[in-house]
Prior knowledge:
Layout: H1 7-25, H2 35-53, H3 58-84, H4 105-108, H5 110-126, H6 128-143, H7 148-160, H8 162-168, H9 178-190, H10 194-204, H11 211-233, H12 256-292, H13 305-319, H14 324-351, H15 359-369, H16 375-388, H17 393-420
Helix pairs in contact: 1-11, 1-17, 2-11, 3-5, 3-10, 5-10, 5-12, 6-7, 7-8, 7-9, 7-11, 8-16, 9-11, 9-17, 10-11, 11-15, 11-17, 12-14, 13-14, 14-15, 15-17, 16-17
Amino acid sequence: MNLHYGPENLQALLGIAVILTVCWALSENRARFPFGLAAGAIAVQVALILILFAIPQSHGLLEAISAGMSALSKATSQGMQFVFGYMGGGDQPYQVVNEGALFVFALQVLPLILVIAALSALLWHLGVLKWIIRGFGLVFEKLIGLGGASALGVASNIFVGNVESLIIIRAYLDKLTRSEVFMMMTVGMANVSGSTMVAYVLILSHVLPNAGGHILAAAIVSAPAGVLLARIMVPELIDRKEEKIDYTSSLKYDSAIDAVSKGTQDGMMVAMNIAAILIVMVSLVALFNMILGAFPQVGGQPLTIERILGTIFTPLAWLIGIPWKEAATGGWILGVKMVLTEFVAFLKLAAIPLADMSPRTRIILTYATCGFANIGSVGISVAGFSALMPSRRPEILGLVWKALLSGFLATCLSAAIVGALPNAVYGL
């Protein structure tokens, strides 16, 4: 492997330093910078990426992950065709002139969430998911110093999502410190749920080799990144390293059928929430863009929210390792992710022709985009956290916008770490 190190890798290293400095500047206690946690969290991220992409033996694992996600997508397609016929991807009753028009987000992507949610509930009931989460909880406990409910909550967040991870540690919510509540909010913003991972892979599969491996890696490495930035911005005052993780949980199902049934119901709620948020956010942005259209054009094009945010985020895109000639496009994708959710950002990223964006930039943007940190998620977080911790609603309202920023920067930190590693790690 040719471990060539170029200027673009160095600028990503600068990006890591800048992100950490910004979070430190916004810290509630700048004197308590967690140097040990910073070293441990970044080391965990680098190690995971190297294990998945730099070790030849891991290629089989990546192929297995991609094959598994492809199988889930094909199985879901069978169910959709059975219920919706040609609208669900079955044989078309008429001549198709535009194949691209057959892709309908509500019918090709959202149903995957139902299947994965039901499968996740079944795996939880059978104990498989519990053991996986237990393994990650142990890693977080030993390597980045988390203890007690926070380690379990962060580990479960990788697979079951933001609000669902709170249900798993519901018995301990009243004991969480302000720093731990903020950490759970940040990790939830920085992460994605298992029920949406396969949907992202489906969207990116035709433009990103090893899409399954990259999405899985992005979901995992963003967890320690979220922990790190949360601890910097709202430092912990209580040492809980010696607290053992209690894996008992209030999340239980009566039987396998009950797990599948309730998992499907939960998946329906997630899918409907995603659909509703997308409709509202896209509509609101379109409305604001119509208003901005009344202003004089800039650069021969009308002003839009995405263009404005894209310009603002262009330096950030460069800092995470994207070449300057592609930084404007990268900033635009980051702006779309912030305003219109990561789903729309992934759709926009997938629509960029292969010739118009380098593979390295596409990989970096995948990690930067893979997280729930968007304006729409603020409402979801407030509703979910407040429902489970009603007495702490004022505290949650005071932290949620800060969590949006830390969650957004956490995915950018993961992307910068990806950009800082030699291109040969990803086969480029």
